[in-house]
Design brief:
Low-confidence stretches: none
Shape: globular
Structural class: mainly alpha
Radius of gyration: 18 Å
Largest sheet: none
Number of strands: 0
Order of helices and strands: HHHHHHHHH
Helix content: over 70%
Length: about 230
């Protein structure tokens, strides 16, 4: 019963944040991340979630670091290959990478790790997956939370789809935008399944946080070198 309440309350928190984001009601990133984390911590605490449920048990830190490091290396290899292949390197030419080296370091350490990877992983692979595991077991819990993770990315996709020149033409029409949004949901849902696997294998939230930060951060870094 507590697990179900934890899951439903967490979903409600994420829905409220999605609506607020859609209407431009959210404040600066630091405040948004702090409020989201605070709300989810309150949900976890009031519903009796343990540190192990959230992937925060101290005994699992070592495994989390090992799996996270492996994921980081794999992501780097894939991005390097994508950067040197003409058919795929156009997707790395993201106009958001037209920033200075200092801004890149800020984006990597603050915007991506503190404001994105940690809050989202705590939400989806921490509170949601931890409560869903108690209700359904690993397969169904991973599938449901990963689909929710994909839906979470609808608003960011609509906001940033024109920043990449490889898909800008497709985003000029309503049909193209719908296709891009569906593609984003599919891709981020698959990524969510991978993050769930890392969380379940390592039992630690550190592994998916590192993988999430690697995908966002290394992609931006490779894009930065590409546009410069």
């Amino acid at each position: 019963m507590k697990a179900r309440r934890c899951f439903l309350l967490s979903v409600c928190v994420l829905v409220l944040f999605t609506v607020a984001r859609g209407y431009g009601l959210l404040g600066p990133p630091v405040e948004t991340a702090a409020v989201l984390m605070g709300a989810l911590i309150l949900v976890a605490w009031t519903t009796g979630a343990t540190l192990a449920d959230l992937g925060l048990a101290r005994a699992d830190v070592g495994a989390g670091l090992r799996y996270g490091a492996g994921a980081l290396g794999l992501v780097l290899l894939v991005l390097i290959v994508a950067a040197v292949i003409p058919a795929t390197n156009g997707f790395l030419h993201d106009w958001r990478a037209q920033i200075s080296g200092g801004r890149l370091l800020y984006a990597l350490g603050v915007s991506i790790v503190l404001f994105t990877a940690i809050p989202e992983e705590f939400a989806f692979r921490g509170v949601l997956l931890g409560s869903a595991l108690r209700m359904w077991g690993p397969w169904r819990a991973s599938l449901v939370t990963s689909v929710l993770f994909g839906l979470w990315h609808i608003a960011p996709t609509l906001h940033t789809m024109s920043d990449n020149r490889a898909v800008r033409g497709l985003s000029a029409t309503a049909g193209g935008q719908a296709l891009l949004v569906l593609g984003s949901i599919a891709v981020t849902s698959v990524a969510g399944l991978v993050f769930c696997w890392l969380r379940l294998r390592s039992r630690s939230l550190i592994a998916p946080i590192m993988a999430h930060a690697a995908i966002n951060g290394l992609a931006l870094t490779v894009a930065w070198f590409a546009v410069h």
